[in-house]
Amino acid sequence: MSKRIEGARRAARIVHALKCPVCGKPVSVEDEGRLLCPENHSFDFAKQGYVNVLTRPAGGHYDKELFEARRRIMMDSGLYAPFHKTAADLVREMSLPSGVPGVIADIGCGEGTHLHRILEELSGLNVIGAGLDIAKEGVQLAARDFQDAVWLVGDLAQSPFADHSIHVILNILSPSNYEEFTRMLAPGGRLIKAVPGAGYLRELREALYSDERQTYSNEETIGLFDRHFRRTETVTLRYSVHLEREQLEGLVRMTPLSWSPDPEAARKFLDRESAEITVELELLVGEPRD
Ligand SMILES: [Zn+2]
Fold first, then answer.
1. Radius of gyration of the chain from Cα atoms?
2. How far is ligand 1, taken at its centre, from the CA of residue 27, in Å?
3. Are 288 and 181 in contact (CB under 8 A)?
4. Distance 103 CA to ligand 1 centre (A)
5. β-strand partners of 34
6. Half-sphere exposure of residue 169, counting CA atoms within 13 Å on the CB side?
7. Starting at the edge strand that comes first in sequence, how are the strands of the sheet with 42-44 ordered?
8. In which band, very low, low, confident or very high, does the pLDDT at 260 lie, cut at 50, 70 and 90?
9. What is the pTM of this model?
């Protein structure tokens, strides 16, 4: 079976959680590999097995190489392994539906590695993953390599997810839309949002920058979460990972921190065999306030 048809069949399993991003009506999954609504808006699955539900071309520029670098380091270095395990533990504690599969949506899934790894940790649990990102270059990689979730290119502001259909929203180091999260979450559903802690990639910040970018405060991000969601649990994760030179290069490449580092500082940072890198993340778990 082609990846296109496989992707469509996976989507058929969560079709009740999908809606037409144009008119908002329910969609069906057609045998030939497309989503179709009663108003005849249709979205074809791509040959890699994802579906693009953008209603207009996405602005912005995404770098395929950046996603590749992120993928490699996440798969090879264990940089986020403790995080994936903790996130999966949080999902296991939740009350998921019995009978029908629970739907876990990763909003801002990038190249899909976080969702893939968390689903691996959850093997045996009756859940289905769906990853959404506006960057096609990321979702293409996700669909190419991970056949364990439904992959969608789309805009959260014109969401392809139906009202109250998602049991767990993952939002990992990625922007939020709390109105949409509230609309999408099923009764009793939870949002798990991961934000960087003050020590996140501390060694990298200190080496690359000499200004205020050396430090990071998540106060504003957490304040926004608390205004919209009632927190039910908070987990702070702090650990360090030993990275070899090649992985450090990937780290410099993949992180938004590196958008404009001093090239000389980057070269100096990479002029070493290995380094200990701190990962500090806050996992905020909550439910909508209203
Ligand atoms: Zn429609």
1. 19
2. 8
3. yes
4. 22
5. 30, 44
6. 36
7. 28-30, 34-36, 42-44
8. low
9. 0.95
